[in-house]
């Protein structure tokens, strides 16, 4: 078989492609003048078992699915993640995947980016690729499985030193392009463990840490301003709920009441944000910083 006409797509065992996915990919590949330089990325959403997972996992899936869908229109912020495609010729040209790394998706993209002098991008495929959320035989075990999945995802920060090294040492890569893409990756990784604290308790705790600031006009009004800003985001949340409802396959839930009451589950956001997002990222990043062993735990999905 001629590898000039072959594409390679990575997929987990639970991946369900849209029936038009291969047609879309084939057309995009054949019409792309830089088909041997680029990746293709669809919107990976956790819709397969949306209504059967525990409510905390469902809230996480809601936001992560919308986030990954929104990245399709973010230009240089779109990086090959999880389920992606590339030409076999490009894969051979860059020496295939590295065998000593857990988060292989970002690594393979940056590897291609720097080996081809920055002339690489991820092309969006505007179709949904549906996956399973972590689910086990018991409620608590399902939550634990989700926790370990996020622990594994946050191992991606281990690649940052290599990306920074390549930024400094690989010649003939456009400065603005390589800086922009590195900035977004570092920002996402560094903010992952701390964004919950900034959004949830920062406005209140800063006045406790610095009593002098608390006596200023800004310090006195900061908690009120923060509450107003966070309350205003309810409008955006309503919009996201509508978008999610329109994108999700219908009739997956056996209970219409559960679908109607789904917005009430958002009261779990502060708890989910800490225990299933910030905390596992903090622990993983700290272990990597201290040189501890990273362990790959396969996510249970029954």
Summarize it.
The protein is an alpha+beta fold.
Fold and architecture overview:
This protein has a four-stranded mixed β-sheet with strand order 1-3-2-4. The chain has one domain (3-289). The chain is 54% helix and 8% strand. The protein has 302 residues and is α+β, with helices and mostly antiparallel strands. It has helices at residues 21-31, 55-70, 88-93, 104-115, 139-153, 160-169, 175-191, 195-200, 202-209, 211-214, 217-247, 256-261, 269-289; strands spanning 7-9, 39-45, 84-87, 122-130. The protein is globular. The two termini are 36 Å apart. Helix 5 packs across helix 13 and helix 9 (202-209) runs antiparallel to helix 11 (217-247).
Largest sheet: 4 strands, mixed
Question: Beta-strand level of the residues, as a percent range?
Answer: 5-15%
- The coarse overall form would be globular
- Count of DSSP strands: 4
Distance between the termini: 36 Å
Give the averaged pLDDT, no decimals.
91
Low-confidence stretches: none
| Spatial sequence of strands, sheet with the most strands | 1-3-2-4
The Rg value, from CA coordinates, equals 21 Å
**How many domain modules?**
1
Structural class: alpha+beta
Number of H/I helices? 13
- State the helicity in percent bands: 40-55%
- What is the chain-wise order of helices and strands? EHEHEHHEHHHHHHHHH
């Amino acid at each position: 078989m001629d590898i000039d006409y072959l594409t390679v797509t990575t997929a987990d065992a639970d991946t369900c492609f849209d029936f038009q996915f291969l047609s879309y990919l084939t057309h995009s590949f054949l019409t792309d003048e830089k088909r041997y330089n680029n990746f293709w990325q669809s919107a990976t959403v956790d819709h397969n078992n949306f209504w059967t997972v525990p409510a905390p996992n469902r809230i996480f899936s809601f936001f992560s699915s919308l986030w990954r869908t929104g990245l399709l229109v973010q230009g240089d912020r779109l990086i090959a993640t999880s389920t992606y495609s590339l030409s076999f010729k490009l894969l051979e040209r860059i020496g295939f995947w590295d065998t000593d790394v857990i988060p292989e998706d970002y690594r393979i993209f940056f590897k291609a980016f720097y080996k081809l002098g920055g002339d690489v991008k991820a092309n969006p495929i505007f179709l949904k690729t549906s996956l399973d959320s972590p689910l086990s035989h018991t409620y608590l075990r399902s939550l634990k499985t989700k926790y370990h999945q996020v622990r594994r995802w946050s191992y991606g920060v281990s690649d940052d030193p290599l990306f920074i090294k390549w930024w400094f040492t690989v010649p003939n890569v456009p400065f603005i392009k390589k800086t922009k893409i590195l900035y977004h990756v570092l920002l996402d990784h560094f903010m992952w463990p701390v964004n919950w604290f900034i959004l949830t308790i920062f406005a209140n705790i800063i006045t406790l840490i610095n009593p002098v600031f608390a006596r200023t006009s800004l310090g006195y009004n900061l908690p009120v301003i923060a509450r107003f800003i966070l309350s205003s985001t309810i409008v955006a949340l309503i919009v996201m709920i509508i978008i999610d409802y329109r994108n999700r396959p219908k009739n997956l839930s056996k209970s219409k009441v559960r679908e109607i009451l789904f917005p009430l589950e958002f009261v779990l956001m502060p708890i989910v944000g800490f225990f299933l997002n910030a905390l596992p990222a903090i622990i993983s990043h700290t272990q990597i910083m201290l040189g501890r062993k990273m362990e790959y735990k396969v996510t249970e999905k029954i």
